[in-house]
């Protein structure tokens, strides 16, 4: 009889212990539910920069491998620059030709300016000579009327006056012609200046395309999804690889819409990450999305058509780590996270 009583007593103790344990666990779950908001629909996020060529061509070299760490502006791959180098040479030759045309036009402008000044001076000299001869003509006419001088002197003076008149007219015509040539050269230089600016733009554009033959890292980080090999022909915008920044990381937690009513910016958060069991990470809410995740899906739900089934929506919440939390911790974008915050 004694062993049976002992067995019954043991069963009672085990039953009571199980009931107490269940009650404690239920109490804990209820307390946690009332005190905390939690979700396991969360993951680590980071900047993933696509690497795309800006010019097309054949890949000469690939200088990195998958998962290799690179610095910003480090050369990742090189495209054959031969065709673009020819374009640069042509653009520079075109610029040199236009600059030579400008130099010639400047020379014409300077020579026409000098000719214009000389013609202007000649006009002044011939007009002064004309005035002097006209004065002499009046005096010689009076002297001839009194038979003081012979007719031959008066005739010579009249001839000289006609010659000077022709010289004045020629000087004036030369002055006008030089001015016209100067103005034409000036207009040509203005149009050449515009052509030089366009040629410089062409040179700069060609040089810029030449620089694009070196494909550089848009950010520091690790190489991911490398999809190119030497000899491959690529086109502008084609995805070649990606650079994942592993230093600027955050968490996006997708809480149910009924959980976010009391959430505020700056609210403290604790997190656990599956890759680091037992370690608790501290963080805070940086922002709450302005729309549910479903609104940004490829085919958002349209509740105005068909039968309606209510589905609890989730709202993305961005959580940032405290500054010292990631020291000596190597997180990766996409890692699963469990987020817990006090109500």
From TrEMBL:
GO cellular component, as recorded: membrane
Subcellular location: Membrane
Single Gene Ontology BP annotation: transmembrane transport
Residue ranges of domain Multidrug resistance protein MdtA-like barrel-sandwich hybrid in the record: 51-244
InterPro entries, alphabetized: Beta-barrel_RND_2, MdtA-like_BSH, MFP
Pfam families the record matches: Beta-barrel_RND_2 (PF25954), BSH_RND (PF25917)
Name this protein carries in UniProt: HlyD family secretion protein
Keywords: Membrane, Transmembrane, Transmembrane helix
Transmembrane helix is among the record's keywords: yes
Membrane topology reported for the UniProt record: Single-pass membrane protein
Keyword Cell membrane: no
Origin species: Rapidithrix thailandica
SUPFAM superfamilies registered for this protein in UniProt: HlyD-like secretion proteins
Domain CusB-like beta-barrel: 249-290
Transmembrane segment boundaries: 12-34
């Amino acid at each position: 009889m004694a062993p049976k009583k002992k067995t019954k007593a043991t069963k009672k103790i085990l039953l009571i212990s199980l009931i107490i344990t269940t009650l404690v666990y239920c109490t804990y779950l209820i307390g946690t539910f009332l005190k905390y908001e939690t979700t396991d629909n969360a993951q680590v996020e980071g900047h993933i920069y696509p690497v795309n060529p800006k010019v097309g061509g054949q890949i000469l070299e690939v200088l990195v491998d998958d998962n290799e760490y690179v610095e910003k502006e480090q050369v990742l791959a090189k495209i054959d620059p031969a065709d673009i180098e020819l374009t640069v040479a042509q653009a520079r030759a075109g610029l040199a030709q236009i600059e030579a045309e400008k130099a010639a036009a400047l020379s014409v402008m300077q020579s026409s300016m000098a000719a214009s000044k000389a013609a202007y001076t000649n006009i002044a000299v011939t007009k002064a000579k004309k005035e002097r001869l006209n004065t002499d003509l009046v005096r010689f006419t009076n002297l001839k009327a009194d038979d003081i001088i012979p007719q031959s002197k008066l005739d010579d003076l009249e001839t000289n006056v006609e010659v000077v008149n022709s010289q004045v007219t020629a000087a004036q015509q030369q002055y006008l012609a030089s001015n016209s040539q100067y103005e034409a050269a000036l207009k040509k230089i203005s149009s050449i200046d515009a052509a030089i600016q366009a040629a410089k733009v062409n040179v700069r554009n060609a040089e810029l395309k030449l620089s694009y033959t070196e494909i550089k890292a848009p950010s520091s980080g690790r190489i991911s999804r490398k999809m190119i090999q030497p000899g491959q022909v690529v086109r502008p915008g084609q995805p070649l690889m990606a650079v994942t920044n592993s230093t600027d990381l955050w968490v996006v937690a997708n809480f149910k819409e009924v959980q976010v009513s009391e959430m505020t910016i700056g609210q403290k958060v604790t997190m656990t990450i599956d890759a680091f069991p037992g370690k608790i990470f501290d963080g805070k809410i940086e922002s709450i999305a302005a729309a549910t995740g479903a609104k940004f899906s490829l085919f958002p739900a349209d509740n105005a058509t068909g039968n309606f089934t209510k589905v609890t929506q989730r709202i993305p919440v961005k959580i940032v780590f405290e500054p010292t939390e990631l020291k000596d911790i190597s997180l990766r974008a996409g890692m699963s996270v469990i987020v817990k915050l006090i109500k």
